[in-house]
Amino acid sequence: MITGASSGIGAAAARLFAEEGAAVVLMARREDRLRALEKEIVAAGGRAAVAAGDVTEPAHAERAVATAVETFGRLDAAFNNAGWAVAGTLLHETDDSVFDRIMRVNVHGVWNCMRHQIPAMLASGTGGSIVNTSSVAGLLATGAAAPYIAAKHAVMGLTRAAADEYGDRGIRVNGLIVGSTRTELMDEVLEKTPALETSFTARAIQKRMAEPREVAQAAAWLCSTRASFVTGAAMPVDGGWT
Ligand code: NDP
């Protein structure tokens, strides 16, 4: 199950996971995009199903988990990646509505998904792996983006709590510390505050942004059994953020 699969990192992950043999359930709000991606994956010989929905709605998260179980037999990996960001505004100048929306999508979204994914994984008897998309903003302050920084810290908190609670029952939970990545979300941020492009690029030792597939590679590894003794980790995919 991949949330935020209609673009950017999530869409890249859907393609990569399917190439590696996973049956993928695609979740996001833009159903037309998910249908097109499903078609592309199936045409390439992969397996995919669409569960269009909003991660802020618990019932939609539940439906996506049910789609995985009903269509493919069980849920053994989840990439909770849907998110939204605003940057470039100081805390006291940021609207309450922005804070609320960022918390709803990034934090409640992960909460809603894990609340339904974990029972499905426990029921399968084979455990599972959950990867939550956090950010360099989930470990430190990255500039004027207080709601996003708070939200991505909370994602790491939920990740560590779940790793701790379910580790002895075969469920691994890890967080991705994602650095600047070329996606629609990044385009949106840079459109409002173009100066951030230079500072974001400068902060990575590699002096560039990531491509979505580079982030997806780390998610694929963490979701797979190759990472069988990795849990509660904050894995950086940030080009060496300093
Ligand atoms: P995109 O804008 O390309 O993708 C965001 C995805 O989240 C879309 O598929 C969008 O789909 C989905 N989404 C947003 N809101 C909801 C919602 N309420 N319910 C369901 N799906 C939703 O950006 P990225 O690929 O960059 O973002 C993926 C993740 O990576 C996010 O969590 C982001 O915070 C994180 N990240 C990104 C960084 C970057 O530099 N790009 C850096 C650090 C972290 P739809 O609109 O169809 O619902």
UniProtKB/TrEMBL annotation:
Keyword terms, alphabetized: Oxidoreductase
CDD domains: SDR_c
Cited InterPro entries: NAD(P)-bd_dom_sf (IPR036291), SDR_fam (IPR002347)
One Gene Ontology term of the molecular function aspect: oxidoreductase activity
Pfam families assigned to the protein according to its UniProt record, in alphabetical order: adh_short_C2
Gene3D superfamilies the UniProt entry points to: NAD(P)-binding Rossmann-like Domain
Transmembrane segments: none
PANTHER family linked: SHORT-CHAIN DEHYDROGENASE REDUCTASE (PTHR42820), SHORT-CHAIN DEHYDROGENASE_REDUCTASE FAMILY PROTEIN (PTHR42820:SF1)
Entry protein name: ScgX2
